[in-house]
# Entry
Amino acid sequence: MPTDTDHYESSVRERRAETVAEFKSHKAGPLQRVQHALHVTPALVPLIVLLVSIIVFGLLLGSRFFSPFALTLILQQVQIVGIVAAAQSLVILTAGIDLSVGAIMVLSSVVMGQFTFRYGIPAPVAVACGLAVGTACGFVNGWLVSVMRLPPFIVTLGSWQIFLATNYLYSANETIRAQEIEAAAPILQLFGAKFQIGGAVFTVGVVFMIALIVVLGWTLRQTAWGRHVYAVGDDAEAAQLSGVNVKRTLISVYMLSGLICAFAGWALIGRIGSVSPTSGYDANIESITAVVIGGISLFGGRGSIMGSLFGALIVGVFSLGLRLLGADAQWTYFFIGVLIIAAVAVDQWIRKVSA
Amino acid sequence: MSIEQKREPILKGRNLVKRYGKVVALDHCDFDLYPGEILAVIGDNGAGKSTLIKALSGAVIPDEGEVYLEGKQVHFHSPNDARHAGIETVYQTLAMSPALSITDNMFMGRELRKPGFRGKWLRQLDRAGMEKFARDKLNDLGLMTIQNINQAVETLSGGQRQGVAVARAAAFGSKVIILDEPTAALGVKESRRVLELILDVKSRGIPIILISHNMPHVFELADRVHVHRLGQRLCVIDPKNHSMSDAVAFMTGAKEPETEFEAA
Ligand SMILES: Nc1ncnc2c1ncn2[C@@H]1O[C@H](COP(=O)(O)OP(=O)(O)OP(=O)(O)O)[C@@H](O)[C@H]1O
Ligand SMILES: [Mg+2]
# Structure
């Protein structure tokens, strides 16, 4: 191999005479700088979209929209989706997807209600059971994905049906009415409790959603587990080779996702007052929408959980804003569809930084 | 060499077999690494070199055969097991998470936590400590022109990435360091730095397994050369007694070695 030998000879002659070439990054254009900033802070796009849409609707609608009451109303309307989107974000960060989030949520809420009213179990214990059921559902998903190595889409497509059917069979399609709950087990409606600060109205569920996102965001950034979640989503094989326990990380993510969905189920009781096996059926699509608009890559390993909250809020702002404008509700879906496609296009563009 | 032979190998493989379906990547392969030496492993593409070192480092669990570390049989179930035992590997694919930072990658799977309550109970990472360590190690290597230690690995050039991977192995390896083509993507000067690093590691008394297709590098550094062919160890040669063309002839099957231990 003459070329190798040539290189070798010349490199021996040079040895350490020269310092290693310095690469000063040439002056980046404004577009590249934007691309770089987004690469580092992926939640920036949804944040800007959120702020701009609030301003635009505020200008169009004035104080009908731009008031503490209306803005906190949006928070209340997105609380369930926001909590479920947090669970969905974790799974999507590992390059998975969880179609069963809505089913886990409803099943958990039904367990909380039925355990209290059918078996007379003290409500706090029933709530704990509901949270355990949600976690167990997540474990089943996680085990099938990590140990059996089945694709997450297929696993959760199946478990979605299974959990939902279980929910209907177990509850016998029976709704527990709000008045009954209020009288016998108000703790089930805890997340619906309201308090006011000025004109702003908050619920426990809203506070929980925000606290959850903040805690998860911190955990993902500041702990080894969080780094492992990103590494697994980025390149599972590389993560395994560099010492991450990929199976354990995946199972923990799906279990945590199940637990969060169970909390969403609890919050759902607070929001609608009753326990209904038919509620929250579209939580999976709404949560995926929030995550995608929030700039988390469906290919895994990229994005921040804060983005999903912004994504959920963007949807909330559009729904309320367009409704107040008197527009047909279909316009909301129309714009959400545009935002989803735009978000994916931006994600692709950001990834080009690496090239 | 007779002294070498009486010494117990620090890392030893016997009868290693690994099949991928019909492909036999390792066919009853033996392997010996002696303390303090640089052992080069050479062989054609697909000869099974990477599979061999993966079987030694826990990344692949061999179908048959045994691995011994310091005379004791070991059963590595994951790369982490091998790392805990002091074997550090730079894989051919580098095994890095492109979207994560240099620091994150260097400490993947062995993160440092903050002292006190925040580390113990909140399990918070000691970012400052890890960043300082990573920066020092990259400076030691002298092959880094990296401005920001928190830059994502995917924004590095191929050679810089390889440098980070080598620095990671050199920083943490305590018993054996395995390098699977560590200079493949590097320029001439950067390769030179890696070769110097290898010698530096050797001077710390840590033995190195170096897989390389670059014969001048192999013959410059190696104490012994393991020639791999068709999933087996064909022979081990002493680079002082053989020429590069001999080695290439063995490797490609153009010439048969007289005994397995030509070097002995
Ligand atoms: N994960 C795998 N699945 C199937 N076959 C594999 C796998 N890994 C390796 N092989 C096969 O095993 C054989 C040995 O591969 P290996 O990567 O060990 O070769 P190598 O000597 O490292 O080659 P190179 O010099 O190209 O890196 C090849 O025929 C390869 O196709
Ligand atoms: Mg190889």
User: Anything to note?
Assistant: Chain A has a mean pLDDT of 89.
